C-alpha cells in the first residue's frame, strides 16, 4: 500500500549522527470560495454541523463533514460532558459515525470548521493529535488518502492531501503483527 505522506529524507553528518527530516506540503486558500465546488460544499456542511455543536463548557464549537466515495456526507460536531474527558471532538464523532454506518465505503475528504462563541475565529484550526490518530486508522484501513481541509469560522482554509501529512510516524496496525 502506497499512501502519499510527509516525505522523509535521512542524512548522515560528519560525526556519523543520523538525522531524519520530515516535510509536508500544505495548500493555503484565502477563503472557502477559492476551493473547488465539492470542497466548498463540504465545508458548508462542516459549518452547519459546527452551529449544532454541544459545547456548554468550552464554548468552542467544532464541526466536521466527511465526504464518502459514494457521495454521502457524514457530519459530526463536538459533544461535551460535565465529566470533561467523557466528551468527544467533532472529527472523531464524524469519523466513527462514517466507520459505523458505511464500513465498506472509503472516505475521500474531511472538512473542519472551528470557532469560539466568544469571538469570530479567522485562524485555521487543525484537528487535535488524538483525532489525527483516529483519522489515520481509516486512511490505513482503506489504503487511500483522505484530504483534510480545516479553517476557523471565516478566512483561510488549509488543505492537506492526506492525514499522514498531518501526522507523520503514525502508530498503525503494522506494529501489532
Ligand atoms: N475539539 C474538537 O472538536 N476537535 C479538535 O480537534 C480539538 C478540540 C473540541 C473538544 C472540546 O469540546 C472543545 O473543542 C475544546 O477543546
Entry summary:
This protein is α+β, with helices and mostly antiparallel strands and 177 residues long.
Structure notes:
- 25% of the residues lie in helices and 27% in strands.
- It has one domain (25-176): 3-Layer(aba) Sandwich (Cytidine Deaminase, domain 2).
- The protein has a 6-stranded mixed β-sheet. Strands 1-2 form a two-stranded antiparallel ribbon.
- The relative contact order is 0.20.
- A hairpin with a 5-residue loop joins β7 and β8 (157-160).
- The protein has 4 helices and 8 strands.
- α2 runs parallel beside α3 (129-142).
- The longest helix is centred in the first third of the chain and has 15 residues, at 37-51.
- By secondary structure, it is of the alpha+beta class.
Number of DSSP helical runs: 4
Q: What share of the residues lie within helices? A: 25-40%
CATH topology: Cytidine Deaminase, domain 2
How many beta strands in the DSSP annotation? 8
Structural class by secondary-structure content = alpha+beta
Average pLDDT metric: 94
Radius of gyration: 17 Å
Strand order, largest beta sheet? 3-8-7-6-4-5
Q: Which consecutive residue ranges, at least 5 long each, have pLDDT under 50?
A: none
Terminal CA distance reads 16 Å
CATH class: Alpha Beta
- Percent strand: 25-35%
CATH homologous superfamily identity: Cytidine Deaminase, domain 2
The domain tally reads 1
Bound molecules: tetrahydrodeoxyuridine
Q: How is the biggest beta sheet arranged?
A: 6 strands, mixed
- CATH architecture identity: 3-Layer(aba) Sandwich
Shape: globular
What's the helix-strand series?
Answer: EEEHEEHEHEEH
Amino acid at each position: 500500500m502506497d499512501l502519499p505522506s510527509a516525505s522523509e529524507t535521512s542524512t548522515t553528518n560528519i560525526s556519523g549522527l543520523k538525522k531524519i527530516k520530515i516535510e509536508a506540503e500544505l495548500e493555503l486558500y484565502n477563503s472557502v470560495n477559492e476551493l473547488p465546488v465539492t470542497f466548498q460544499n463540504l465545508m458548508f456542511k462542516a459549518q452547519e454541523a459546527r452551529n449544532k455543536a454541544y459545547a456548554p463548557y468550552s464554548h468552542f464549537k467544532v464541526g466536521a463533514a466527511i465526504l464518502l466515495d459514494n457521495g454521502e456526507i457524514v457530519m459530526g460536531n463536538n459533544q461535551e460532558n460535565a465529566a470533561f474527558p467523557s466528551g468527544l471532538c467533532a472529527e472523531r464523532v464524524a469519523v466513527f459515525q462514517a466507520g459505523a454506518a458505511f464500513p465498506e465505503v472509503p472516505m475521500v475528504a474531511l472538512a473542519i470548521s472551528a470557532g469560539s462563541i466568544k469571538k469570530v475565529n479567522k485562524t485555521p484550526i487543525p484537528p487535535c493529535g488524538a483525532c489525527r490518530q483516529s483519522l489515520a486508522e481509516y486512511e490505513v484501513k482503506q489504503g487511500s488518502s483522505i484530504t483534510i481541509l480545516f479553517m476557523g469560522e471565516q478566512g483561510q482554509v488549509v488543505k492537506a492531501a492526506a492525514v499522514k501529512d498531518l501526522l507523520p510516524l503514525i502508530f498503525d496496525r503494522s506494529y501489532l503483527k
